[in-house]
Amino acid sequence: MKHSLFISKLLLLCIFISCRPIEDENHHHRITFYNSIASKLYVVEEINYPDTTVNHLYVLRQPEIYRVDPYSLNNEAISLHPHDTYEAAFKEYKGYKRIPSDTLMVFVFDAEKLEKKNPDAKIYFLARYDLSLEDLKHCNWVLTYPPTEAMKDVKMYPPYETFAKRDGTGKDSRP
Asked: pLDDT (tens digit, 9 = 90+) per residue, 87-105?
């Protein structure tokens, strides 16, 4: 009897530990990225702001996670462990902050050029978004390339204004 009670409690404990938390308005463990151009992209997050160097070639080992196909959504490239949230990552807990500078950087790369593995990252870098927790809330946890009007107040490079001068491909349409 004691043995079966112990097994039952152990089984219940395993079930409760493995339950996946539900996302709601105060708990987000992923950021949706929408590619609104006809080319494939790669998306990378980085927490070491203002250090803008990023080890971007690792995304090629798992394109199913980091690549965003044309006109599609990606919910995995910018995500935390399901039991962690971005709200908690931006806050200090016991002297530790997962995002130490209060800025999450998201880099957007041209997939076709990145897959050629040219060592010069400048040729396939398209954009960098420097996001605060408030920026993410304002954008409703959805980022887009090229940036939408909802993202105009987000700190980014190149600045939002330059995207207004581009066509739907994300490339400069000026002569």
From this structure: 888 787 666 777 778 899 9
Structure tokens that stand for 31 in this block: 């950021």
Residue 40 has which token pair?
Answer: 């494939």
Which two three-digit tokens encode residue 19? 């339950």
Q: Kindly report the pTM of this predicted structure.
A: 0.78
Quick check: helix, strand or coil at residue 105? Answer: strand
Domain boundaries, the chain: 28-164
